[in-house]
Amino acid sequence: MSYPYQIKSIEDYQQAYQQSVIDPEGFWANVADHFYWRRKWDKVLDWNFKDPEIKWFTGAKLNITENCLDRHLGTLGNTPAIIWEPNDPEEHHRIITYRDLYNKVCQFANVLKNNGVKKGDRVCIYMGMIPELAIAILACARIGAVHSVVFGGFSAQSIADRIQDAQCSLVITCDGAYRGAKDIPLKSVMDDALMACPSVKKVIVCTRTRTPVSMLKGRDLWWEDEIKQVETMGNPPCPAEEMDAEDLLFILYTSGSTGKPKGVVHTCAGYMIYANYTFVNTFQYQPGEVYFCTADIGWITGHSYIAYGPLSAGATTLMFEGVPTYPDAGRLWEIVDKFRVNTLYTAPTAIRSLMSYGLGPVNHKDLSSLKKLGSVGEPINEEAWHWFKDNIGKGKCPIVDTWWQTETGGIMITPIAGITKEKPGYATLPLPGVQPILVDENGKELKGNGVSGNLCIKFPWPGMLRSTYGDHERFRKTYFSTYENLYFTGDGCLRDEDGYYRITGRVDDVLNVSGHRIGTAEVENAINMHAGVVESAVVGYPHDIKGQGIYAYVIMERLTHDLELTKKDIAQTVARIIGPIAKPDKIQIVGGLPKTRSGKIMRRILRKIAENDLDNLGDISTLLDPSVVEEIKKGKL
Ligand code: 6R9
After folding, report:
1. How far apart are CA 488 and CA 479, in angstroms?
2. For this UniProt entry, which residues form the secretion signal (predicted)?
């Protein structure tokens, strides 16, 4: 596979960038020419950020799996598409070639068809990181079903909310999942969720952990049995469904500043082009290289940079079932060594965690295959950046600090590996096609360099979300109503004297805990479900490993004598309602919350207290009752 649109030098980058701004349609049409289409587009782009409506490649027909699988069979049939490393290092790894993957996807796509799944139906996928997860999403895409992957760490309640919102008719899950020392009973959690989900008619269960499960007659089916049926039918091929460019490819739920996660909608053509373009360019992928992204497919990073980006590029993508610290903190380095990994794409929280174990686990591992390193999910602090650069990259590997979001579909601001001059802590420059703009509170553009403000994007890019599922008005409100005619990212950002971008973190009520987006309102809602809780307020505070930790202030109806137990119970309630990732790190029981006269909680003050910055609370005179602040400060000591 060759990539004629791969940038090779900084001059190339500048030229591509210029062209993408002067003639965006021509620019993206040139990229799109290198894909497989059933029918080409009538028009490259139709858009307005007012309604808002965004359409790329209108009139085009395609199927993303023909681009990820069929078109590679001739030249890459025997090339590994997926290398899978299990949680337990003693268990054998699996290598799935492009031909194997094609066969398995067709087989499972036929299983879905046999079970009544049709184009446009929504399918919820709740699985661990096994190859069948990648097969499941591609099988959905093959027949035009819309997948909605839910991360294996989410609770029954969170799954139910997502299934109901999307009205999924079928669920694909596993008996259980291995993650480090834990076995997660996926099917049993799913059973709880499904009590509230009448739309679900069938559940396909893939065997992984052999955890005992209960199978409901008429609803639950074993993956393996269903595959056998297709085999008895003589394994018929599964022709790809012809999709319109703007037909839905998938929904992925993400947290915002309001209580309810929203279903981010991505469509077929634009997403495909963008995931591929950004993968090939950012990581400077060369045929034959082994590429390893440590994310989970339950998040957007896994969708775009384990599955669709690499596979559409005919790359070899390594999929790891476990966690970086199991069975010990040398695991990632062992995997790099074992498979001669060339690119490692991970998160600052993982780097910081591994850093805390010192160099012991790194020493004596052969990391000489590494050529490129990447980071995603949250701002990377300089210490972690240098540790990664010096000890993992041995000073010779470029690091790409990639800024992007679930909503953007792919990487937006990043160095291009080995081409852009890097600067620790900076995502550096926008990729071609991306037009960032910084604005002040009032939406006034901050021109020139050496400015800092809210990060917006002023022109569409092919990978951007098209809507929030079932609620287009929410889409408009969330992203396009803060500043007229701009997509608002929710992030604060600095553009330095060199024109380099540094993302400083969320400016809305969204936390970033270990790279996971968590809305403060969501956590508050969960806390408020706990018996005896009157009200709560949640803020973030700096955490050495997680980046941000969750600090909850909680008012109780009455105080029990065992406050520690109450706090533990509250944390447990949050884990049960949302999932363990949203568990507060610190809970403080308080008598009142700092509110303005109009009843708004002043989070600024709570944030300062959580950060232990007790002497800089700023003006508290507008508070209804300033004495609560003293009380909270005292309670903290
Ligand atoms: C891909 C992904 C998006 C939010 C985003 C921002 C933060 C992501 C970052 C970064 C600084 C980076 N973020 N990458 N902040 N530097 N390189 O993480 O998507 O889960 O939707 O989170 O993550 O705050 O707005 P998602």
Report:
1. 5
2. none
Task: Evaluate whether 370 touches 392 at the Cβ level (below 8 Å).
Answer: yes
CB 206 within 8 A of CB 127: yes
Atom index in ligand 1 nearest the CA of residue 506 equals 24
Strand (E) or helix (H) holding 260: none
DSSP string covering 144-167 = TPEEEE--TT--HHHHHHHHHHHT
Beta strands across the sheet bearing 290-293: 94-97, 80-85, 316-320, 290-293, 343-346, 372-376, 399-402
Helix (H/G/I), strand (E/B), else coil: 467: strand
pTM higher than the cut 0.95:
yes
Phi, psi of 80 (to 5 degrees): -65, 125
Q: Is the CB of 262 under 6 A from ligand 1?
A: no
| Residue 568 alpha carbon to ligand 1 centre in Å | 30
Structure tokens given for 231: 């085999």
**Burial grade of 274 (CB within 10 A; 0-12, 13-18, 19 or more):** buried
Cα–Cα distance between 152 and 19 in angstroms, integer? Answer: 42
Q: Does the ipTM surpass 0.90?
A: yes
Q: Determine which residue's CA is closest to atom 1 belonging to ligand 1.
A: 405
CA-nearest residue for atom 18, ligand 1, is 377
Cβ pair 238, 109 in contact under 8 A? yes
Lookup: tokens for 588: 């403080």
- CA-CA distances (angstroms) from residue 257 to 232, 359, 467, 523, 633? 50, 39, 17, 11, 26
What does the pLDDT look like over 153-193, one tens digit per residue? 999 999 999 999 999 999 999 999 999 999 999 999 999 99
The pair of structure tokens assigned to 292 is 């390893």
**Ligand 1 contact via 256 beta carbon (within 6 Å):** no
- Does ligand 1 have an atom closer than 6 angstroms to the CB of 300? yes
Helix (H) / strand (E) element for 215: namely none
